[in-house]
């Protein structure tokens, strides 16, 4: 199959490009490189440098490369920033996705796999969270993803566009080879920050609250390894191409969670020295427990995550950060 991977130079996109090629598929990447890195791509992958806010460029790429399916990762992803700059988030994430949808139905009407997020659920009492849980995003970021999910479904109903939505939980880790990994312009994710603290780039790790209703008082999250998540995209796009499970939405997680303290303990063990830790007040908007009910993707697509051991997950992140303390910058 030939795939157009939009946002393929980013963290999750670049791991997916690699897994798609390992599965024998041909890949063309479209990315504006606002947060992605050309260095994260194999040297022989075609990179179209274009922005989803330029509809003509998107149509031109679809016409030029004639993909059999599209995988759409391109988005701004910071929850805090989305609250301060909603216009930028709605424009990039919603208008950009609308341009892509319009371009697909006007050119090739090929299947679409879309990157969504557990942030569409907001705070919920459901543990674990099934796909049909109530959706009340608490951030502009989560809202842009929910709006895009709804647009995609409307294009399916009106134009027959085949699609799969994948709702990611806490994506983490890096390629086991240690050559590609997380390199965002600003870091907010727990494991990434802990690795940077271990490297001495930050003074200490803050634990945002230890008075949550969880066994050790810190928040629990479902940490899914980026390579397993990449495999989920391969499974999803292959099923869509075969005409199976069209218009499905899947949670992607392990189905069990780890607390902030358990994650930091695992980092201590992997690094070999204890991190400097400090207790801080709760961070606004953090639900106590976010764990996926991932049974649907297991049943339909045979999703079978390989990285279920927290120590192993952290080890891959640590290998990447240790070898690339400044990300893709030399
Ligand atoms: N945390 C700390 N200290 C830090 C950073 C994080 O204690 O320095 C805590 C947070 O309070 C939270 C947990 O670690 O309890 C995980 O926080 P992250 O920022 O790593 O991730 P989030 O759970 O906030 O959000 C991530 C993605 C969202 C997605 C969500 C789904 O960023 O887009 O996972 O589970 F929706």
UniProtKB/TrEMBL annotation:
Pfam family membership, one: Epimerase
NAD keyword on record: yes
Reactions catalysed: UDP-alpha-D-glucose = UDP-alpha-D-galactose
Annotated GO biological process: galactose catabolic process via UDP-galactose, Leloir pathway
E.C. number(s) listed in UniProt: 5.1.3.2
Pathway(s) this gene product operates in, as recorded in its UniProt entry: Carbohydrate metabolism; galactose metabolism
Gene3D superfamilies named among the record's database cross-references: NAD(P)-binding Rossmann-like Domain (3.40.50.720), UDP-galactose 4-epimerase, domain 1 (3.90.25.10)
GO molecular function: UDP-glucose 4-epimerase activity
Cofactor(s) listed in the protein's UniProt record: NAD(+)
The entry's keywords: Carbohydrate metabolism, Isomerase, NAD
Domain NAD-dependent epimerase/dehydratase: 4-253
Assembly mode: Homodimer.
UniProt-listed NCBIfam families: galE (TIGR01179)
Entry similarity comment: Belongs to the NAD(P)-dependent epimerase/dehydratase family.
Full protein name: UDP-glucose 4-epimerase
Organism: Deinococcus gobiensis (strain DSM 21396 / JCM 16679 / CGMCC 1.7299 / I-0)
